[in-house]
C-alpha cells in the first residue's frame, strides 16, 4: 500500500475517532439535560400535588360549611320579621 493511501486511511480513522468522541459527548450532554429536565418536572409535580391538596382541603371545608348551613336551615323554621313603617 502506498504512503498516500495509508495517509488517507489514517486520516479517515482520525475522523472516525473524532466523530465517535463527539457522539459520546453529545449523548452525555443529552443525558445531563434529560436528568435536569426530570428534576424540574419532579419539582413541578410536587408543587402541583401541594396545590391539589390545598384545593381539596378548601373544597372539603366548603362542603362541610354548606352542609352545616343546610342542616341549620332545615332545623330552624323560616321566619319573616315584619317591617315597621315609621309614620
Walk me through the structure:
The chain is mostly helical and 87 residues long. The chain is 84% helix and 0% strand. The chain contains one helix and no strands. The N and C termini lie far apart (126 Å). The model has no long low-confidence stretch (mean pLDDT 93).
Give the structure's gist in a few sentences.
It is built from one helix and no strands. 84% of the residues lie in helices and 0% in strands.
Protein traits:
87 residues, mainly alpha, 1 helix
Beta-strand percentage range:
under 5%
Please tell me how large the radius of gyration is: 37 Å
Average predicted confidence as pLDDT: 93
- The proportion of residues forming helix, as a percent range, comes to over 70%
DSSP helix count?
A: 1
The major pleated sheet works out as:
none
N- to C-terminal distance:
126 Å
Low-confidence spans: none
Query: What is the N-to-C succession of helices and strands?
Result: H
Shape: rod-shaped
Helix-strand makeup class: mainly alpha
Number of strands: 0
Topology (SSEs and partners):
Blueprint: H1 3-75
Amino acid at each position: 500500500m502506498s504512503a498516500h493511501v495509508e495517509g488517507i486511511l489514517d486520516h479517515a480513522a482520525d475522523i472516525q475517532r473524532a466523530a465517535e468522541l463527539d457522539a459520546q459527548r453529545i449523548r452525555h450532554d443529552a443525558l445531563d439535560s434529560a436528568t435536569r429536565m426530570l428534576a424540574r418536572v419532579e419539582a413541578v409535580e410536587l408543587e402541583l400535588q401541594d396545590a391539589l391538596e390545598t384545593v381539596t382541603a378548601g373544597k372539603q371545608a366548603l362542603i362541610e360549611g354548606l352542609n352545616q348551613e343546610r342542616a341549620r336551615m332545615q332545623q330552624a323554621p323560616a321566619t319573616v320579621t315584619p317591617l315597621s313603617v315609621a309614620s
